[in-house]
Amino acid sequence: MVLSGCNSAPPANPGDVCSIFTERTSWYRAAKAAEERWQTPIALNMAIIYQESSFRSRARPARERFLWVFPGARPSSAFGYAQALESTWQEYQLRSGNDSASRSDFADAVDFVAWYNANSRRISGIEATDARSLYFAYHEGNAGFQRGRHLRKRWLIQAADQVQQNSEKFSRQLDGCRAEFEKSWFEKLLSSSSEQFGWKAAMRSMS
Q1: What range does the domain containing 97 cover?
Q2: CB atoms within 10 A of CB 162
Q3: Which residues have a Cβ under 8 Å from the Cβ of 177 and sit 6 or more positions away?
C-alpha cells in the first residue's frame, strides 16, 4: 500500500521530462513502447498528459458549484493521467486490444494518448510536430476540430499553445538525456564504475 501511494504521486519535477524518467524509469519504457506502437513522439504524448493532469494518476475535473457553495456534479467523466472520458476509454480498450487498461495506470494512459494522436493524424491529417492542433483534436474530438469548434474557446487556445511549447521543450530535453535511458544495465554499470574511478583519482590528485 505504501509503494502504491508513492507511485501514484506526481513526479517531483513535472516540467522536466528527463527528471521524470530518471525518477521513474518504468515510465520511460512505457512512453517508448507507446511511441513505437503508434508512431507518435514521446515529447508530444507527455506534453498532453502534463496539460491534462500534471501527471496525477486520479485527477478529475473540479465539481460544479450549486448556489455558489455546495459541490455539485462533475462536468464530465474525465479521469486519470490522460483525463480520458469513459466512453472514449472504452473505445480505446476495444480497438487497441488493451481491454484491461486502467485510466490511473501511466503505461495505459500514455498508450491511450499515443493511440488517440495516431487517430488524429490519420483522420484529420495533422502532422506529428503540430502539437497545438493535435491537442485541439484531443480535447474537442476530431469532428469538433474539423468544424473549428476550438476557435471559439480562448482558454483552450491558450492551453494548446502551452502544449506546443512543452512538447518542443520536452523534445529538446530528451535530445540530451535519451541515450542514457537507452543504455543496458551492463552499460550503466560500466558508466557508474568509470565515474567512481574518476572521482577517486581526482581526490587522490588533490591530496
Answers
A1: 7-201
A2: 16
A3: 18, 21, 22
CATH of the domain at 136: 1.10.530.10
- Confidence at residue 138, expressed as pLDDT on a 0 to 100 scale: 98
CB-based contact 24:180 (threshold 8 Å): no
The answer to the question of residue 181 being in a domain is yes
Record the pTM. Answer: 0.84
Q: Tally the domains of the chain.
A: 1
pLDDT digits (tens, 9 = 90+) for 38-66: 999 999 999 999 999 999 999 976 545 44
pLDDT tier at 9, thresholds 50, 70, 90 = confident
Contacts of residue 46, defined as CB under 8 A and 6 or more positions apart, other chains included, come to: 17, 20, 31, 110, 166, 167, 170
* Residue 185 falls inside a structural domain: yes
Which residue type does 166 have? N
CB distance 134 to 126 below 8 Å = yes
Q: How far is CA 133 from CA 36, 128, 141, 150, in A?
A: 21, 9, 11, 10
pLDDT classification of 13: cutoffs 50, 70, 90: very high
- Measured from the Cβ of residue 186, the count of other Cβ atoms closer than 10 Å reads 8
> pLDDT by residue (tens digit) across 138-166?
999 999 999 999 999 999 999 999 999 99
Of 41, 2, 27, 38, nearest in space to 128 by CA = 41
